[in-house]
Amino acid sequence: MGAGMNSSVNQQIQSPSPRRRGPIAIAASAQSLTPVVRAPRLRGGGTLGVVLKSAVTLAFVAGLLLSPGAIAPALAQEGGPKLKAVSWPHEGPFGLFDQASLQRGFQVYKEVCASCHSLIYLSYRDLGGKGGPGFKPAEVEAIAATAQVPAGPDDKGEITDENGSLRMRPALPSDHFAKPFPNEAAARAGNGGALPPDLSVIVNARHGGPAYIYSLIAGFEEGDKRPKCLGETPGKFYNPYFANGEVPDACKDKNGKSTIEGTLIAMPPPLDPGRVDFADGTPNTTEQMAKDVTAFLDWAAEPHMEARKMIGFQVMVYLLVLAGFFYVSYRHIWKDVDH
Ligand code: HEC
User: Fold this and answer.
1) Which residue from 5, 58, 62, 146 puts its CA 20 to 30 A from 191's CA?
2) Distances 203 to 24, 117, 162, 183, 326 between C-alpha atoms, Å
3) Dihedral (C-alpha) 237, 241, 244, 245: value to the nearest 10 degrees?
């Protein structure tokens, strides 16, 4: 099952999700410009219609460019349990990330998730980039310096020290995030055989996107809430939102269909109240930590979201001005013609 998850993450990397179709949308909008240019040659009555239709098409395409994420939740929920209701300021066509929330989310990732999950596509310097958590250059350097990355070969070409361990050095802002395990075998060995997936694009790689990630990490059910039929499950934890795990036979009806929502997951509940202390005084409830770390992972999956939305907005304004301009020229060109 771990390998399956991994391949779906890889697939996601090869074929970008619907959230990243910028160039295609732009090509489509360029095509639909053609009728506008030819408009005056058409019969008079149709011209305004063509202009307006084209403007509407262009606006629609630009709208998609702005907020393709908006259609995701509707598609997301087929089959699985209803996801927890949660919202983020960066949702919607004009939403921007809450910088303080991203900084807290990074703290949760670093102090909790980073001991099992890598974020291989992120570099420390990304933490200081525009439209992200916005750490200052000195803070980025300090954050990087607390991590250790492989130092590579020394003068003699050795990559290990005299004890045979890999030579390490403190990370620089230009380094990719340090990985918790050197390879997959070590990661599985440390997690009872299960592989903690890389979290770089996990938000795009799962149906339900951020709402699923939030529900998963804040939605473990233990104690009285845990279905009795599960019995003891050492190393496995019940999560109503996780669909890819196993369910013991005692929780299946005679047709082999599961009688409970969700399955068992090999990840222990990562968050409980007070797990991380936020310097800005934000209450450290499970829900708050889950919300912040999910926002951080959403940013990690698309660090240039704010730039994309800004371009989308500019395209909309440009198209509106253009539509107005075409309308005025239409009136001007046809003003002396009986039609
Ligand atoms: C002790 C190690 C450990 C910690 C800490 C941990 N995880 Fe996991 N996580 C795992 C393992 C193992 C899996 C794979 C579970 C499986 O396949 O049954 C996993 C799976 C996941 C998944 C994928 C679920 C899916 O749909 O396939 C997400 C998302 C995730 N973890 C997020 C987080 C976040 C966010 C944190 C920090 C708040 C975190 N994890 C902390 C071990 C951990």
Assistant:
1) 146
2) 22, 14, 42, 23, 41
3) 20
Q: Where are the domains of the chain?
A: 134-176
Q: How far apart are CA 71 and CA 230, in angstroms?
A: 36
Q: Is 9 in the pocket of ligand 1 (CB under 6 A)?
A: no
194-206 pLDDT, tens digit each: 999 999 999 999 9
* Residue 114, φ and ψ in degrees, nearest 5: -65, -15
Q: How far is the CA of 31 from the centre of ligand 1 (A)?
A: 44
Question: Using a 6 Å cutoff on CB, does residue 8 contact ligand 1?
Answer: no
CA-proximal residue: ligand 1, atom 20 (nearest): 196
- Using only the alpha carbons of the chain, give its radius of gyration: 26
Task: Report the Cα 202 to chain-centroid distance in Å.
Answer: 6
Confidence (pLDDT) at 238 = 97
CA 2 to ligand 1: nearest atom: 17
Provide the pLDDT for residue 3.
Answer: 43
pLDDT in tens, 46-94: 555 555 566 566 656 555 555 544 444 444 445 568 999 999 999 998 9
Cα–Cα distance between 100 and 117 in angstroms, integer?
A: 22
Distance 237 CA to ligand 1 centre (A): 11
**Does 271 contact ligand 1 (Cβ within 6 A)?**
yes
- Three-state SS at 106: helix
Burial 87-118 (b: 16+ CB within 10 A, else e): ebebbebebebbeebbbbbbbbbbebbbebbb
Rounded CA gap, 97 and 306, in Å?
A: 8
How many whole angstroms separate alpha carbon 266 and alpha carbon 237? 6
pLDDT of residue 175: 97
Q: Which neighbouring-strand residues pair with 237?
A: 265
How many whole angstroms separate alpha carbon 239 and alpha carbon 216? Answer: 7
Q: Quote the CA–CA distance of 141 and 28 in Å, as a whole number.
A: 42
Give, rounded to a whole angstrom, the gap between the first and last alpha carbons of the chain: 68
Beta strand segments in the chain, E: 148-150, 168-170, 237-239, 263-265
